[in-house]
Design brief:
The chain is α/β, with parallel strands linked by helices. It has 2 domains: 3-264 and 477-491, Glycogen Phosphorylase B (Rossmann fold, 3-Layer(aba) Sandwich); 288-471, Rossmann fold. It contains 20 helices and 18 strands. It has helices at residues 3-11, 35-49, 62-68, 118-135, 156-163, 167-170, 189-196, 216-223, 232-237, 241-244, 248-253, 288-301, 324-334, 349-361, 374-383, 399-405, 416-421, 442-458, 460-472, 477-491; strands at residues 20-23, 54-59, 73-82, 85-96, 99-105, 145-149, 173-178, 186-187, 209-210, 213-215, 226-229, 258-260, 311-318, 340-347, 366-370, 386-389, 409-413, 435-437. Strands 3-4-5-2-1-6-7-11-12 form a 9-stranded mixed sheet, with helices on both faces. It binds adenosine-5'-diphosphate (ADP). The site of adenosine-5'-diphosphate has 17 residues, from β13, β14, α15 and α16.
């Protein structure tokens, strides 16, 4: 065990590292729709390397059943009351890559989609909440920390404190991690009254009420022992009305119990020295292969400029969050200088149409691939010179970290995790690993892109140094895991 952890435990009068049960709607590699699954799937492995026994409890979705049925071991079953119905709960056990995963089985709730949307989704996860709380005393694994993630599991801390009195429940501490505050699980009071037997006294603004409804996420923000989110800057931002989505009041009141821990990326998967998906390997000591990747990418995408022309790329969902309205505003002006622009993304129709029209106006210099393409994304990260991320808000952001691994310098707005991971170029000292701008303003973004292109064109030495800085950053999950381990110990 790390000496630092030994000391922290000694201060608490403990000798043993805490045990942790992560509760989540999805967990990679068995079920995944987004970044939440990666965090929940990877964290236990990195925690195990530090000596922390962390396990996962998640629904037994159909996609998991289809792939892992033969490896799953049935543990026990019971029934829970949900509204007027009594529902079957099966608890199964699966070990994947050394991580123990408890699966909550019920064909009715976890028969098809991971997220059903609307009220059915609320009922799905009200069931999951009840099933998890009732299953814990019989798992044969007693967690010190129950680590909940996002709204789907955020009622657990509240029910634990208001409806459960067993010894095992009483000794657990709860942590709620907010991966995206925009999704809150809001439903009418009757929903909570009927399905989860929530008493009327909790439907006030001090507890669960939010804009005339009640919200899973608000219950978690009020009742969890500790709160965290996925970057230090975002932790500060969600305490303000602009970013807080109505929860800024409770979050700022609990600011001292709210931490920000940056997510990691899979540094084995995203490694320019071993990535089988890119046309030539390279590393920070040998960057020549990157120029080859760029030439290949430009050829593949039909970009016909000189190979020294700066190539600015975006790999992103096309939503308002990601700053596409800024791009829409100034792309034509940006194309007046000698640059190429490449987009890999999908999302809102209006942005897709804008990109198609821009491609026609700037043939050979603007190019877009509308759709989701994992393999192409590796070639873009490897071949581009810069990655643009002008987000309106960004809880953590992975694309900028992936880009830096490949020596592609990020140009970002200073918000959330972007602010915490990208250090802007300092022309006096040569320090930095990218470029950034402060305000959500199209011309500020354009000026920053132009500045980056100018450094690329006229100061190759400074550029190469920035690339080496970016490629030397540690974005591995082990760093996040250490921060989580510190937090768990602090919670004891
Ligand atoms: P968010 O989770 O908000 O979409 P992140 O930056 O945290 O944004 O993560 C986005 C992830 O999805 C990155 O791994 C990025 O490479 C990938 N991605 C986004 N759009 C595409 C796409 N069109 N094709 C392939 N990968 C994509």
């Amino acid at each position: 065990m790390k000496r630092e952890f030994q000391q922290a435990l000694a201060e608490k009068g403990r000798t043993r590292l805490p045990t942790v049960l992560l509760v989540s709607a999805e967990c990679a590699p068995i079920s995944k729709t987004g970044g939440l699954a990666d965090v929940v799937g990877t964290l236990p492995k990195s925690l195990a390397a530090l000596g922390v026994d962390a396990r996962v409890i998640t629904p037994y979705h159909r996609c998991v059943k289809d792939r892992y049925r033969d490896r799953v071991e049935h543990m026990f079953s019971f029934s829970v009351d949900l509204g007027w119905r009594s529902q079957y709960v099966g608890i199964e056990k699966l070990v994947v890559d050394g991580v123990t995963i408890y699966l909550v089985d019920n064909e009715y709730y976890f028969g098809d989609r991971i997220y059903r949307g609307g009220m059915p989704e609320g009922e799905q996860y009200a069931f999951f909440t009840r099933a998890v709380l009732d299953a814990i005393p019989n798992l044969g694994f007693f967690p010190d920390i129950l680590h909940c993630n996002d709204w789907h599991t955020a009622m657990i801390p509240m029910l634990l404190r208001t409806q459960y009195g067993y010894y095992v429940h009483g000794r657990m501490k709860t942590l709620l991690t907010i991966h995206n505050i925009a999704y809150q699980g809001k439903f009418g009071f009757d929903f909570f009254r009927d399905l989860l037997r929530v008493e009327d006294r909790y439907f006030t603004s001090e507890f669960m009420e939010l804009n005339g409804c009640a919200a899973f996420l608000k219950a978690g923000c009020v009742f969890a022992d500790r709160l965290s989110t996925v970057s230090p800057t975002y932790a500060g931002e969600i305490c303000t009305p602009y970013y807080g989505e109505g929860l800024d009041g409770i979050l700022s009141a609990r600011r001292h119990q709210l931490s920000g821990i940056i997510n990691g990326i899979d540094t084995k998967l995203y490694n320019p020295f071993s990535d089988p998906l890119i046309p030539r390997k390279f590393d920070k000591g040998h960057l020549r292969g990157k120029q080859f990747c760029k030439d290949e990418l430009m050829g593949e995408m039909g970009l016909r400029a000189d190979s020294r022309t700066p190539l600015v790329a975006m790999v992103s969902r096309m939503t308002d969050q990601k700053g596409f309205d800024l791009v829409e505003c100034v792309l034509d002006e940006m194309m007046e200088s000698d640059i190429c622009f490449l987009l890999l993304g999908s999302g809102a129709k209006k942005f897709e149409e804008f990109m198609r029209a821009a491609e026609a106006r700037h043939r050979g210099r603007v190019c877009s691939y509308i759709g989701y393409n994992e393999e192409l994304s590796h070639r873009v990260y490897a071949g581009a010179d810069m990655l643009l991320m002008p987000s309106r808000f960004e809880p953590c952001g992975l694309s900028q970290m992936i880009a830096m691994r490949y020596g592609t310098l990020p140009i970002v707005r200073e918000t959330g995790g972007l602010k915490d991971t990208v250090k802007p170029y300092n022309k006096f000292t040569g320090e930095g690993n990218g470029f950034s701008f402060a305000n959500y303003n199209a011309h500020e973004m354009k000026a920053t892109v132009e500045m980056a292109c100018e450094v690329y064109r006229s100061q190759p030495e400074a550029w190469a140094q920035l690339q080496r800085n970016a490629m030397s950053e540690d974005f591995s999950f082990s760093r996040s895991a250490e921060d989580y381990a510190r937090l768990y110990i602090d919670m004891l």
